[in-house]
Design brief:
Number of helices: 7
Structural class: mainly alpha
Number of strands: 0
Order of helices and strands: HHHHHHH
Radius of gyration: 22 Å
Strand content: under 5%
Oligomer: single chain
Distance between the termini: 33 Å
Length: 134
């Protein structure tokens, strides 16, 4: 933290970078929070203190997405794996330069999915084995 304070003191004479960093950290705290009332107030304080146009735009975005953020705070469930799979499929399509045969395209997607699943299972098994050895 001392190093960051030195960087802000030397490279941020207006205090804007430090204020933006504070807003970012409050957003991280908001997403880690388990109490909805506390979460709602956490980010607002930093946005008001920073008083930056970017921070106010972020505040508006958080307000627009509050129902989804609230659901995440209550359930800790995200659609990250689905989004990652969609990104992988788009990457396969982009690097394939236009598959002419739909079966080849489908096979490529399924092979990638299988490889990811195998890797994830192996990693989980390794973690379980390591945890049991202690």
């Amino acid at each position: 933290m001392h190093r960051l304070d030195r960087v802000f003191a030397h490279d941020d004479p207006t205090g804007e970078i430090g204020a933006a960093w504070g807003v970012k950290e409050r957003l991280r705290m908001l997403l880690a929070c388990t109490d909805l009332d506390t979460a709602r107030g956490l980010h607002g304080v930093a946005v008001v203190a920073a008083d930056l146009p970017e921070a106010w735009r972020l505040w508006e975005t958080i307000n627009d997405w509050w129902d989804e953020i609230e659901t995440f705070i209550e359930t800790l469930v995200t659609n990250a794996r689905t989004e990652a799979a969609n990104t992988a499929v788009k990457h396969i399509k982009r690097t394939g330069r236009g598959y002419r045969n739909h079966r080849h395209y489908q096979a490529r997607i399924l092979l990638r999915s299988y490889r990811q699943t195998r890797w994830r299972r192996a990693r989980l098994n390794q973690q379980a084995t390591t945890a049991n050895c202690g």
